[in-house]
Amino acid sequence: LRHGVSQENMDIAWVPGSFEMPLIAKKLAETKRYNAIICLGAVIRGGTPHFEYIASEVTKGIAKVGLETGLPVINGIITADTLEQAIERAGTKEGNKGFEAAVNAIEMANLMSKIAAKEK
Prior knowledge:
two-stranded antiparallel ribbon; 50% helix
């Protein structure tokens, strides 16, 4: 609600896990209804290499959606060794990654708009 964005101009799409985010981000981008998409979530390290695979593929997938669609797709996925670290990065000692992602989305949407205006 800060930075001039009202609740009516936001939609939330819940996904079952971080791995599914790039697909839904792409479907949302293809609707051409959005100026930016923010992917928020957390991947917590476990006792297997699964963490590395998921974190890497989700990051690549989110970046790919932005490049393929030309829409800013912001990666707000927290990767952490523990749940406590993730909570700290979500709004306590380590800042607020969701807020940072929202500010980045606004900045990128504004920049894309300026670039498009200059192309005309």
